[in-house]
Design a protein that fits this description.
Blueprint: H1 3-21, H2 28-35, H3 39-45, H4 49-71, H5 77-90, H6 92-98, H7 101-109, H8 115-139, H9 145-165, H10 168-183
Helix pairs in contact: 1-2, 1-4, 4-8, 5-8, 5-10, 6-9, 6-10, 7-8, 8-9, 9-10
Length: about 180
């Protein structure tokens, strides 16, 4: 297996382990075992668990930016917001069972105050800023960012509640309500 493919596979496995067990309960050995690789293989690609997590967070950030770029092909800000909510709808079973991967990492890392905390916060800020931008476009006013705050708060609260209750139907029904709220503006 070439180095790039192996590194990508380790990141995928690390995402799964951090999602399932949390950052602090996951050891390098857990990632190595789940990836079915040697310790040398891991350390050829990553200096530490922290380095691996940093690359996991970079992957989430890149994926989010790519997703938003794809939405930009649609000229309608309401539709872009709706498409963003659709991604949660499509993954409702997993989100209800495991929680949102970025939120989970953020909550695990938020008190450590290091580079990983900042990286997790930055992903949430990218999402928040993008949502704010959509409302500013819709209302043609900078004061519309409070609507973005409301959507971000509702969405993140909903993701936590759906996970707490392990209820994908709750997540789906409330996402439909949020989409209806956006369409009504």
């Amino acid at each position: 297996m070439n180095k790039k493919v192996l590194s990508a596979n380790i990141i995928i496995v690390a995402k799964e382990k951090f999602q399932k067990d949390g950052y602090y309960k996951t050891d390098v050995e857990d990632i190595i075992a789940a990836a079915n690789i040697s310790e040398d293989d891991f350390y050829q690609h990553f200096e530490s668990k922290e380095d691996c997590c940093n690359k996991v967070l970079k992957s989430y950030s890149q994926n989010l930016k790519k997703e938003f770029k794809e939405y930009e092909e649609n000229l309608n800000a309401r539709q872009r917001l709706s498409l963003h909510l659709d991604t949660y709808y499509e993954n409702a079973e997993e989100v209800a069972k495991e929680g949102d991967a970025v939120l989970n990492l953020y909550y695990d890392l938020r008190n450590s105050g290091d580079e990983l905390t900042k990286a997790a916060e930055d992903i949430l800020k990218i999402q928040h800023n993008w949502i704010d931008e959509q409302f500013v476009i819709m209302f043609k006013s900078e004061s519309a960012t409070d609507q973005g705050d409301r959507l971000m708060a509702a969405l993140n609260g909903l993701l936590l509640l759906a996970n707490l209750r392990n209820d994908p139907a709750l997540l789906k029904s409330q996402l439909i309500q949020l989409k209806s709220w956006i369409r009504s503006m």
